[in-house]
Target: Cytochrome P450
Amino acid sequence: MTTMTSAVTLPPGPSVPRAVQGAYALTQPLRGMRRLKERYGDAFTVNVPIFGNAVVLADPAEIKQLFTSGPDLVDNLEVNLGRVLGPRSLFALSGDEHKRQRKLLVPPFHGRRLAAYEQIVEAETVRELASWPDGKEFATLPSMMRITLNAILRAVFGAEGAEFAELRELLPPFVTLGSRLAVLPITKKGRFNPWRRFERMRRDYDAIVDRLIAKARPDGDDVLAMMLQTRHDDGSGLTRDEIADQLLTLLTAGHETTATTLAWAVERLRRHPAILRELTESDDLLDATILEVQRTRPVIDLTARQVKQDGFRLGRWTLPKGYNVLVSIALVHDDDAVFPHAATFDPHRFDGARPDLYQWIPFGGGTRRCLGAAFATMEMTVVLRTLLRDFTLVPTSEPGERWHSRGVAYAPAKGGRAVVRRRTGGEQ
Ligand code: HEM
Model:
């Protein structure tokens, strides 16, 4: 039960100055979190850049309470995302406005609708894998980035032809610049300011979205076509600006996250030949393998909320209004008490059981849980199924790749290197 009292009780945490904590958080984020958990337990208080004073949670019961608390108690923590994705982005909205927008965006991402996109993902995968070298080591991440970008452009933006080609050029540098501007304290003043370049790119982007809207077919099954048809309870639809901001949000949230998870899947499978063999013989273990890749290599390590009322009781703690709360996805996934032998990569742990969605949390949780979770799962399933059908992935005894932050997500540091052999009879 959530009750309100005024006395603040915060978890323990380091007392070193913010600058020192910040330097550590920026250079050693995951190792830093693990050390703090060893020292202070499964909740601690930190003071770091971007998030300021924040409580970090790694206890599943407290995380469940946080995820299931209403937006009057905890809500969005705006970290400048509105400035880069647009003020109507789901990431920038709170409370009722978030609920209202999200309600219209959920149906196109519902599991049943997604079957329509499988063909797109398979075609993009086959097209990309045609260039994979036989028997020569290479990084798979660039390929995964192209597959997931093209899949979103076609299935979500409904883009083909000129708009598809222009968005493919424009969006990767636009998103990279945007994710830097979201976290760096750069004002919009000055002639050679990077914001100028960003605003120019945004104008180009808006012009392409206008063309896509003009071309969209009312009976189209891409997400943009559905956004144009959908209506709020009062009969009003989404405006052009809302559509443009949400499409950019979907691309930013869904492109690199899915691609890096796929690169990790390659990295993990090459180091677990028995699992790889099982997967080659049957598809049965594929769903569980994807769950286990996301458990052991969550590409987003934190999700954040902000306390909206004074004296918010969260498990053992009482937090003041304005305090930020971070959920450490990696710490929960690493916890032997939650996942026995957590360090072992073992998809069989999910045999016959779906994971508890407050313990297996790569997509966050509650009213702000990843909108594209089913889409991402569909994509990863189709890409891996196609890859394993057309190629033999050669195992390796090399140590695992390290984590590397790319801005939006954590990727394998060497890009998920692979050696593959094309199967005879596989599709070209
Ligand atoms: C493996 C791939 C992905 C991972 C690991 C991932 C992870 C996440 C996480 C951790 C959040 C924050 C949830 C929270 O605060 O509780 C999130 C939010 C979101 N994701 Fe994903 N995501 C992935 C793919 C996608 C895809 C493919 C799309 C869409 C095409 C997408 C769209 C979104 C959106 C719109 C939100 C904001 C939801 C809201 O605020 O209501 N994501 N995602």
